[in-house]
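Sharing a chain and its predicted structure for anyone who wants a worked example. Both blocks are below, sequence first, tokens second.
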Amino acid sequence: MQHCLTILLVLSTIGIVWANGDPKVYRPVRCELVPLPNHQVSFRIDGMEMTRWHYGPDYPRPFFYPFNGPSGVSLTRMGHPGASDHDHHRSVWFAFHKVNDDLNFWADGTGTQIRQKQWFAYKDGDDEAIMACALGYFDKEGAEVMEQTTVAAIRPGVDGYELELQISLHPPENLETVELRKTNFGPLAVRVAKSLSEHFGGGQLTNSEGALGEPDIFGKPARWVDYSGPVVVGSGQERNISKEGITYIDHPTNLRHPTKWHVRSDGWMGASVCMDTGITMTAEKPLVLRYLLIAHSGGCDAALANASAKAFAERPLFEVGKRRTKHRPWEVWRKTVERE
């Protein structure tokens, strides 16, 4: 009897679990999401955190931080390096400057708030881990004026990793329409680390058309924009410099692709779908936008960025729906892939 117990103990330590007399092997997947206290979700590959989703009520809007590069150092920062009135720049975030009658969901202190209303699904896997949730845009009186169905997927990349983002903007159930007015600001922005910026650090802005720097990229259409530069790795005498960056890709199905870009030498970049004109949405015609953020080592590699953009273009979009499997009231899946 003691011998049998010893065998069972050994088998359990290597991941074998007995069920109805049949052995089953548990194998960890590469990509996973780990919900954490204080309204946070850790996005991990091979057990290492790549980024973290923050959706606590203490903030005016949710955001991702850190956004780690291959060295493990964040390629983004919280806030502007020199302007205290830009604390709304929180790493990687969703926001919009002018909604309906000039409601400002971009800046802090306006009385508006973007809140996560619920999460739909967390799905782990070897190829990707996927989070789906609903965000609500609320005015000063607490009335919801716009809803955003959000899907975020972490994937291993060729040279780093990818964060794929898909949003569907539409009116809430009590409204027929919602309007995004003309503005440079929104819906997805990235504040890079101080050392990556052209002005405060040693970074370089590049776009898919081969242009360099803010003057030649700002307001110009491009399939992607890249911000790369030095990051400081390690501590003490082992402190050294590594070169890494973020490539930000606009999906070819997005409205007004290739998008125009709002970029700054002080260290931020954002796709500006409403730079020239606004958009009116209904429940039947939501605005669906897809973006890809790639954390990579080295400087901008145009060939690699173009290959990643091509692969992104061929990847099916996400869908979110009601129960089809046990213990899952909601699910998220790729459109052309059968639900499990």
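Comments welcome. The chain has one domain: 34-334.
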